[in-house]
Design a protein that fits this description.
Structural class of chain B: alpha/beta
Order of helices and strands of chain A: HHH
Order of helices and strands of chain B: EHEEHHEHEHHEEHHHHHHEHHHHEEH
Number of strands of chain A: 0
CATH class of one domain in chain B: Alpha Beta
Shape of chain A: elongated
Oligomer: heterodimer
Strand order of the largest sheet of chain B: 6-5-4-7-8
Number of helices of chain B: 17
Largest sheet of chain B: 5 strands, parallel
CATH architecture of one domain in chain B: 3-Layer(aba) Sandwich
Mean pLDDT of chain A: 89
Helix content of chain A: over 70%
CATH topology of one domain in chain B: Rossmann fold
Helix content of chain B: 40-55%
Number of domains of chain A: 1
Strand content of chain B: 5-15%
Mean pLDDT of chain B: 93
Chain lengths: 74, 392
């Protein structure tokens, strides 16, 4: 999921390289995505639960979080 | 304002993502889920409030917090401004003038959150006309504010002494401003929260039909109707139509829900010491209720959705003379602050389960991963924010 978002942002970056404002925004989003990625991997690693559903449910929220981190309106 | 140190702070807002788990982990029995709401065994009156909300909204969000105190739910929310029956009518201009005067008298910098919508534009127009010194105010906006109302943005740029602050880019992620923040949110609720989907589904005329018939068609339960009858009596005026009932429910039970659930998270996400009292709903005040309470018939003037809160647009027109905007502008669901809020929470790693009235965030280290084990480790600190079933 994260890889897909990164590729999409990178494609945007190339496609709009002539627009300095958009280019800067996409660069910022890519760095924010990297920050998010490092945070979330660490959390998955640290998380302890006796209910496997906790993982499944949270994966849905992570998809939403990814959307927010890479939302072009933000 | 200084941060208040509280022994046992109550709840300002609950993160709806985790509300079901929080209730279950605290031993409540969820009898039904409607949208983001959960009816809980032992809280019959509160459950009826959820029913009212589901009558009015396809996807009800944000817990109702009853200003009359009749139907409180399992979460102990911080007390809201209690409902008091207005006895003296004042006109719109006087209400807005009084509100501006009261806020300016606090003597702190005032950050006006301008989205470009009807409510925040009316709020800004009121400050521009009535603030003793406009230099006390700052317009806090995003590019989306300027897309929604470019003419007003041009007007603002030309006002001498008025500072405009664009929060986009990196700025909103690390915003650190002094003073209070005044939001147009609370306006929807105090004006009956009429949404277009409701009008499309039930048509304008349904707003003026008896609420009992309307409610009973959707929820054929006489006990529910009896509860509503009892609750509506606290309004101190006749609640006859669907519009009356809608106004009463949103004004008495949902007034600050969006403010506390969305706007507040935006500010607390960046700071561990943000005092929630610094965030103010412009329309959440006694003086505005002294106007609207006596003017419910003016909330929406015709079946044209653009006439919802026409008097606010007329008020702005007196200031900017923009007749096109006055005639055509209708509510636009700008989610810019929400987009910013989610992103700020995620990137600052300040996701929370609940926000408390002293600004503290209730959180566990691995959010958005959250388990019963996590809650067991911290729940003893927060027992006081949960009510016993049947206690209300």
């Amino acid at each position: 999921m994260i890889v897909q978002h990164r590729i999409s942002l990178q494609q945007d970056l190339y496609a709009k390289a002539s627009d300095p404002v958009v280019f800067k925004r996409r660069m910022r989003m890519l760095s924010q995505l990297a920050l998010y990625e490092s945070q979330i991997y660490q959390k998955i690693y640290n998380f302890c639960t006796d209910d496997v559903n906790d993982y499944a449910l949270t994966m849905q929220w992570i998809m939403q979080e990814l959307y927010h981190v890479t939302d072009r309106n933000g | 304002m200084s941060l208040i140190v509280m022994d046992k702070p109550l709840v300002k807002s609950v993160n709806s993502t985790y509300s079901q788990k929080l209730l279950q982990y605290n031993g409540y029995e969820i009898v039904q889920s409607l949208g983001a709401f959960h009816k809980v065994f032992g809280f019959d009156k509160y459950n009826y409030l959820i029913d009212i909300n589901s009558v009015f909204s396809n996807y009800p969000r944000f817990d109702p917090v009853d200003r009359t105190g009749q139907a409180l739910g399992p979460i102990q929310y911080a007390p809201e401004r209690p409902w008091t029956i207005p006895h003296t009518e004042i006109n719109l201009e006087s209400a807005l003038q009084q509100r501006v005067k009261d806020l300016c008298a606090i003597g702190q910098p005032i950050n006006l959150l301008w989205s470009g919508g009807i409510d925040s534009t009316a709020m800004v127009a009121a400050f521009l006309q009535y603030a003793p010194d406009i230099k006390q105010c700052k317009i806090v906006y995003s590019p989306w504010s300027t897309y929604e109302h470019p003419e007003f943005y041009q007007l603002l740029k030309n006002i001498a002494g008025l500072e405009l602050l664009d929060t986009s880019g990196e700025f909103y992620l690390h915003m650190n401003l002094n003073g209070i923040f005044v939001s147009g949110n609370t306006s929807d609720e105090i004006h009956a929260s009429i949404d277009l989907s409701f009008l499309e589904a039930y048509k304008y005329d349904s707003l003026f039909t008896p609420w009992q018939d309307f409610f009973y068609k959707l929820i054929p339960n006489q006990q529910f109707i009896d509860f509503c009858q009892q609750h509506f009596q606290a309004a101190g005026r006749d609640i006859v139509t669907v519009l009356d009932a809608r106004w009463w429910f949103y004004a008495s039970c949902k007034l600050t829900s969006i403010l506390n659930s969305c706007n507040l998270s935006f500010f607390t996400a960046g700071s561990n010491t943000f005092d929630p009292n610094r965030l103010v709903g412009f329309f959440d005040c006694d003086c505005y209720e002294q106007f609207i309470y006596f003017n419910l018939d003016r909330i929406i003037e015709s079946d044209n959705y653009a006439t919802w809160r026409q008097f606010l647009k007329d008020f702005v027109y007196q200031y900017d003379h923009n007749d096109t905007w006055r005639r055509n502008k209708q509510k636009f669901n700008s989610n810019q602050i929400q987009v910013y809020t989610f992103k700020k929470q995620i990137l600052n790693d300040s996701r929370n389960l609940m926000l408390l009235e002293d600004g503290k965030k209730v959180a566990t280290p691995n959010l958005p991963f959250f388990s019963r084990l996590d809650w067991e480790n911290i729940k003893s600190q927060y027992q006081h924010v949960f009510r016993e079933p049947c206690s209300v």
